[in-house]
Structures are given as C-alpha cells and as structure tokens.
Amino acid sequence: MGGSRHPRALWWALLVLLAEGRADAAAGGRGRSNIILILADDQDVALGGMTPMKKTQLLIGQAGASFANAFAVTPLCCPSRSSILTGSYPHNHLVRNNSLEGNCSSPAWQKFQEPYTFPVYLQKQGYQTFFAGKYLNQYGDPKAGGVQHVPMGWTYWLGLVGNSKYYNYTLSANGREEKHGALYEEDYLTDLITNRSLAFLQKFSRTPFLIVLSPPAAHSPWTAAPHYKSAYRTITAPRDGSFNVHGKDKHWLLRQAKTPMSNTSIQFLDNVFKARWQTLLSVDDMVEKVLDELKALDLLGSTYVFYTSDHGYHTGQFSLPIDKRQLYEFDIRVPLLVRGPGIKPNQTYLEPVLNIDLGPTFLDIAGLNMSQSPMDGQSFLPLLVNKEQRDGWRSDFLVEYTGEGCTGKDPQCPTLGPGVSQCFPDCVCEDAFNNTYACVRTLRPHDFQYCEFADTQNFVEFYNLTSDPHQLLNVAKSVDPSLLEQMNQRLIKFQACAGVSCHF
Ligand SMILES: *[C@@H]1O[C@H](CO)[C@@H](O)[C@H](O)[C@H]1NC(C)=O
Ligand SMILES: *[C@@H]1O[C@H](CO)[C@@H](O)[C@H](O)[C@H]1NC(C)=O
Ligand SMILES: *[C@@H]1O[C@H](CO)[C@@H](O)[C@H](O)[C@H]1NC(C)=O
Ligand SMILES: *[C@@H]1O[C@H](CO)[C@@H](O)[C@H](O)[C@H]1NC(C)=O
Ligand SMILES: *[C@@H]1O[C@H](CO)[C@@H](O)[C@H](O)[C@H]1NC(C)=O
Ligand SMILES: *[C@@H]1O[C@H](CO)[C@@H](O)[C@H](O)[C@H]1NC(C)=O
Ligand SMILES: *[C@@H]1O[C@H](CO)[C@@H](O)[C@H](O)[C@H]1NC(C)=O
Ligand SMILES: *[C@@H]1O[C@H](CO)[C@@H](O)[C@H](O)[C@H]1NC(C)=O
Ligand SMILES: *[C@@H]1O[C@H](CO)[C@@H](O)[C@H](O)[C@H]1NC(C)=O
C-alpha cells in the first residue's frame, strides 16, 4: 500500500498502526473463526441481480451455501442497515427513514442503539474489527458528530460520509477527514474499499477478525468503472409478470402510477438496469480479490464469508420506474451466500432467513451467548453446520416500513399535492407518507403475504404466492375472513415483539 505516490495511504497505514496498539490491549477470543461480510447496496435477487456476479456465485455460493429465501425486514437503506447492525426490527431500533429526524445515524441512534451493534459484541470478544464503505445514509453529518464520530465497535474505520457515491466523496479514516476526487486509479470507491481491505489483511490483521465491506454498487448514481462501461450493451430490464402492469387493486401509491409507462420512463429504467449490472462487476472483482488474499494467507479454512444486500430493487414492476420501498418480493428479497468452516459446498437452503439474523449469526460464530443480547433475529449457523436443527426454524416474519414524504409541493411536478416523494421520472411517485405498512410474510405451510396500511383507507393487501407468484391479484376482499383475522392477530404479535418474543 506504500509508495510516495499515495500520501493518503501512508496516513491510513499510520492510523492503523496506532489503532493496532489499542486493539492489542483487548484480550481473549483467539482461535475463533474470522468473519467477513460484503454488503451490496440496492442489489435485488428477484430480477437477476446476481447474474453479473459469476465469480461470487462460484467462490461463495458453490463453495458454500445459498439461501433461496433471504429477506430484508424493511426495504430502505438506512432502516435496513440499522436492522443488520442491531439484529432488530425497525420497531425496536426506531430508525424510520433515511433522514436524521427519522433517526438515521442520529445522536439518539449513536447513544441508544450503536452500543448494541454486532461489532461491539465481537470487539469485546477479542475480535479485531474493520469497516470500509457506506454505513448509514446520514453518517458524517455535522449535526451527528461529523467525521469525528467513529461508531462504537470498530478498531479500523473507513466510513463514507452520506449516501452512496463512486467519485468525489469524503471518508472518515478513523475520525480524520479524507477527501477524494474523480480519478479512476485513485478514487473509484468500490476498488478503494477492495484495496484497503487487502492492505488490512496483508499487513495489519490479527485473528480473529471481523471485516465489513460496504461498496456503493448497485446504488445510484450507477457509475461503472471505465473498463465496464461497455458491458451488457444489449441488455434491458426483464419484462417479467408484473412489468408495466397497473396495480389496480393495490393501495393508493400503486394506483397513481401511469400504465403503460411512457417511453422515456422505459428508456430510463432500461439504462439504469444496465448501469446497475456494470457497477456490480467491480463488486464481483472485490469478492475474488478478497478470497484470493485469504487463500494466499492460508485463512480460507478459518473464515466465514457472507455476501448479501441491504434490500432489493425494481425496474418497471407495477409501472413504478425505479426504486425500492415497496412490500413486494422484488424489493424485500435479497441475495445471501455464505462459505466457511463446516459448511458443505453447493447447498441451497429454503428456510426463510432475515437481515436481522446476520448479527446473531456472527455472535454465534464468536461463541457468544445470544440470550445476553437484545437482538430480535436468530443465528442461522445451526442450519449451516448441523442439519438436524432445520425442523424448528421459523416459517414467517414481519416486514415493516414507514413511508417518506415531502411536506411541500414538488416544483418539478406542479400537479401533485404534498405528502409524496421520489417522483421521478415522469412524476410517478415511489413513496408517500401513507406508504406506511406492516406485513406478515409466511412461507410454510402456505406461501402468503398479508399487509395493513396506515392510510385513510386502512388498506389491506393479501397475496397467495402459490397461485400468484408475481402478486398480481390482491385477494383481501375474497379470501376467507377468518384467514384475514388469523393474519391480523399474527401481525399484532409481531409488531410488539422484542428479542426472544420475536421467535414464536
Ligand atoms: C429516535 O430514537 C429515539 C431513541 O432511541 C426515540 O426516543 C425516538 O422516538 C426515535 N424517533 C422516531 C421518529 O422514532
Ligand atoms: C467531480 O468533481 C469535479 C469538480 O467539481 C467535477 O468536475 C466532476 O464532474 C465530478 N465528477 C464526478 C464523477 O462526479
Ligand atoms: C487498487 O489497486 C490496484 C492494484 O494495485 C490499482 O491498479 C488501482 O488503481 C487501485 N485503485 C484504487 C481506487 O485505489
Ligand atoms: C413508444 O414506443 C413504442 C414501442 O417501441 C412505439 O410503438 C411508440 O410509437 C412509441 N411512442 C412514442 C410516443 O414515441
Ligand atoms: C455445484 O453444482 C453445480 C451445478 O449442479 C456444478 O456445476 C458444480 O460443479 C458444483 N460445484 C461444486 C464445488 O461442487
Ligand atoms: C445463556 O445464558 C442464559 C441466561 O444467562 C443461560 O440460562 C443459558 O444457559 C446460557 N446458554 C449457554 C449455551 O451458555
Ligand atoms: C422521517 O421521519 C421523521 C420522524 O418520523 C419525520 O419527521 C420526517 O418527515 C421523515 N422524513 C421523510 C422524508 O419522510
Ligand atoms: C395518500 O397520500 C396522498 C398524498 O398525501 C393523498 O393524496 C392520498 O389521498 C392518500 N391516500 C390514502 C388512501 O390515504
Ligand atoms: C392458494 O393457491 C393454491 C394453488 O392454487 C390453492 O391450492 C390454495 O387453495 C390457495 N389458498 C387460498 C387461501 O386461496
């Protein structure tokens, strides 16, 4: 990493050496497995989001386990990332949206939630912890401690200020501001995260370690590396079962979408789809380089590597051009691949696992007793290393979301009233204050989704995914009322659950 051409890298090395001295003071934990989490941004699995990730599928999926039913409990960056960090549903970590007022990286989050995030537990267990990339959307805001705030639990911290970017961004390198321009060789964020993680592994790592790598891909502004800008020249977004279909029996926000979409919307979303895949190619390279380095250091056999995303994404489903924030499969399903000690190659699991299960799984790997943490999720390590545990696994879970809106009118869309947001392109809105909902998603013995909205209609949606995998038909009005009643009771219990009471 040295060389006089990279003075910033030297600074980083110095800071890491200083931090190393502090970390050595922490005792215990030796002999436990290392953990690496690679967390993509906005990467769907339902619309082929893993297709560009050939090396990742081979090196993690085929070398280990793939979860065919992995879900985010909330489909928006900051609440979902807060769920990953705390292992808890949003009604317990209280991060409602992507803004400071909604507790995204807010002073209240730092005081009341950050002390219970998984790196804190692992560091206490003697793990050396390393973070690089996007943390929470408001990280680094002057009203929340600026770049000087290094979240608890991290020995080495390289946090991106604000939301995903590929160039022209600011990092906090262990609390010190590090500004970057737009030169591919020095600044492309996905590659920079890869390079810093390799340097950490080569020069500073001491086992056991936890590494979290959080690249900006496939989030907007979708800037690919120069050598990937010509990839997927002819690809378009999939015209799947719900593409350009009007959500006529769905809640208000879906009904305001325009069907058929305008040609400009379709062109726009096709370009976004292509650019998303191009940005993911650099994440695929990251996975290969990190695994090559583990192999070179003889650490492959003692390291668990997890690959996932914060939530899904849509491009044209139900005539919503681009975004996440919806309760449907494309937005809540995520990729989840794991390799590591005791995991047999090429296993596919059908059990529903959640983003809130990652924290408990990491604690389990570190040998911690879960009942001493307030996390709502459950460790899926027993599923991976001991098949007998499979029978008692959960069959349903909660999805909850608080809609974002604007209090004023959108100047670009004078015909729209207040209360909506993300009305782009063509003034079709992707969110609204009343896109606030809670759902029970159950996979066994029936494949159902039941959702209640906090809007003026107390709108209800119900899908039978066995007969209707694309969720085209809301059967809330025709299904047996006693079934709705059962689902409503289940939802009420979930919305009040905390810790072990979420495991019923
Ligand atoms: C933000 O978090 C604090 C403390 O955790 C809580 O008191 C507050 O109600 C939360 N805000 C919202 C909007 O949920
Ligand atoms: C980065 O910032 C420079 C200077 O403001 C600007 O000219 C350039 O277009 C920006 N590049 C990107 C990719 O944002
Ligand atoms: C990452 O390292 C590679 C190989 O040394 C180098 O070619 C590339 O320019 C580096 N990129 C960044 C953003 O540091
Ligand atoms: C939109 O695209 C369709 C199919 O490509 C084409 O038939 C139609 O003429 C286009 N409409 C406009 C207004 O450009
Ligand atoms: C995993 O399964 C695929 C498809 O069945 C096969 O092509 C591949 O060789 C297998 N890989 C390993 C590592 O067993
Ligand atoms: C975990 O802690 C609880 C409560 O302190 C205790 O009852 C339980 O036996 C512990 N479990 C293990 C596996 O140590
Ligand atoms: C985020 O949540 C806070 C607290 O509920 C709310 O005041 C704010 O309006 C929300 N922001 C958006 C963009 O919806
Ligand atoms: C949802 O909010 C929008 C924007 O404020 C409003 O126009 C609409 O009537 C609301 N719909 C329901 C069902 O609450
Ligand atoms: C769901 O669909 C399956 C397959 O068509 C059907 O057998 C089952 O009765 C349906 N369940 C409900 C509650 O409609």
TrEMBL record:
Signal peptide boundaries: 1-25
Post-translational modification, as annotated: The conversion to 3-oxoalanine (also known as C-formylglycine, FGly), of a serine or cysteine residue in prokaryotes and of a cysteine residue in eukaryotes, is critical for catalytic activity.
InterPro entries: Alkaline_phosphatase_core_sf, GlcNAc_6-SO4ase, Sulfatase_CS, Sulfatase_N
GO annotation, cellular component aspect: lysosome
Reactions catalysed: Hydrolysis of the 6-sulfate groups of the N-acetyl-D-glucosamine 6-sulfate units of heparan sulfate and keratan sulfate
Localization: Lysosome
Cofactor(s) of this protein: Ca(2+)
Lineage top rank: taxon: Eukaryota
Protein name per UniProt: N-acetylglucosamine-6-sulfatase
Lineage of source species: Eukaryota, Metazoa, Chordata, Craniata, Vertebrata
